[in-house]
Amino acid sequence: MKENRTLLDAEPGKTYRISQVDTNDEEMERFLLRLGCYPGEPVTVVTKKRKSCVAVIKNSRYSMDNNLARAIVL
């Protein structure tokens, strides 16, 4: 059984495809969908830090805390 990888597991500089947004928080899910986090969309992590990461989604850069990044399943 393959374990789900999230944006936190992504290697900086590499492009991945979003497979799903996995959260029980409806507000967070709506926020991520507004950013363009839909299944099949490409996402690239630019940098990762201890408590956040910067990702490119739909040609825009977003700084995300670990809670947001954990909800994006690759």
TrEMBL record:
State which residue ranges cross the membrane.
Answer: none
InterPro entries in the record: Fe-transptr_FeoA-like, FeoA_core_dom, Transcriptional_repressor_C
Q: Which GO terms describe its molecular function?
A: transition metal ion binding
User: Coiled-coil annotation: which residues?
Assistant: none
Give start and end of each Ferrous iron transporter FeoA-like domain: 5-74
Q: Does the keyword Nucleus apply?
A: no
This chain's source organism reads Baileyella intestinalis
Give the highest taxon in the source lineage: Bacteria
The record's keywords, sorted A to Z, are: Iron
Instruction: Write down what this protein is called.
Output: Ferrous iron transport protein A
The answer to keyword Iron applying to this record is yes
Q: Which Gene3D superfamilies match?
A: 2.30.30.90
Q: Could you say which residues form the signal peptide?
A: none
